[in-house]
Amino acid sequence: MNSEFLLSIDTLKNESAKLAVSLTDEQAKQLATYMQLLIEYNQHTNLVGNAAPECLLYEHILDSLALLPVINRLSVKKTAAPASLIDIGSGAGFPGLVLAIAKVDLNVAAVDATSKKVVFLQNVVQALDLNKRVRIINARSEEIAHNQAFRTSFDYATCRAMGALPVVCELTLPFLKPGGYALLQRGSKQIEAEKSLAQKEIAKLGATLIESILLDRNILAKDHYVLIFKQDKQAPSKYPRPWKDIKAKPIF
């Protein structure tokens, strides 16, 4: 790791603290290494549009870490066993891998259908010695959601930058246990319309929209909301539908 990234460790800790996220030196070093690996990989395989360190920090790393206080507040687990989170369309690992680094009592399954992204995620997990807590899955989420090894198996679900809210909800919520939560990051555009539709229709998936949080615009690069859905009961077995049906006729 070069000196630029060694210097960024303090920045990572200080900026994270503004989000009420406390990182150890080791966690900050892991995040800095993650950034270095992403910059290097992005030189030959496009994973993010802008891999400049400042952009990675504010648009991706901190944006992912902003979910951690929300997860800690929801506190699904009532035992000492690690909680479980599935990250749908994980891409370069946001927010799933970042959360795995920052929360040592969290098991993460990162799902992506694109092989080049999966190779990168596997490289990061290996380099950071996260194999015991992080599983990388190369698959389509609408298919493995019907596999009993994954369906209704997770305490939390995340999904970032995967398109319209009805699509994201259908691909995500069937993975949750009853009582689990989906934390879906959304841009500010059309957020009120999305919330209104979700409040009326999300019961189709056995869930309730319980909260909308505007993340700290003074720290992050742009306005972002987190919509929090609570899974009241198992999603009906027909969901998620095949991809062509999800796209042709959104659930709401």
Tell me, what's the shape?
globular
Largest sheet: 7 strands, mixed
Which percent bin holds the helix content? 40-55%
Order of helices and strands: HHHHEHEHEHEHEHEEH
How are the strands of the biggest sheet laid out side by side? 3-2-1-4-5-7-6
Distance between the termini: 47 Å
Uncertain residue ranges: none
What's the helix count?
10
- Residue fraction in strands: 15-25%
Structural class: alpha/beta
Radius of gyration: 17 Å
What's the overall average pLDDT, rounded?
93
Number of strands: 7
Describe what you observe in this structure.
- The protein is α/β, with parallel strands linked by helices and 252 residues long.
- It has helices spanning 3-17, 25-42, 53-65, 68-74, 96-102, 115-127, 141-144, 165-172, 191-201, 243-248, and strands at residues 83-88, 106-112, 134-138, 154-159, 176-187, 207-214, 224-231.
- It has a 7-stranded mixed β-sheet with strand order 3-2-1-4-5-7-6, sandwiched between helices.
- Strand 2 (106-112), helix 6 and strand 3 (134-138) form a beta-alpha-beta unit.
- Helix 1 (3-17) crosses helix 2.
- The longest helix has 18 residues, at 25-42.
- The protein is globular.
- It starts with a helix and ends with a helix.
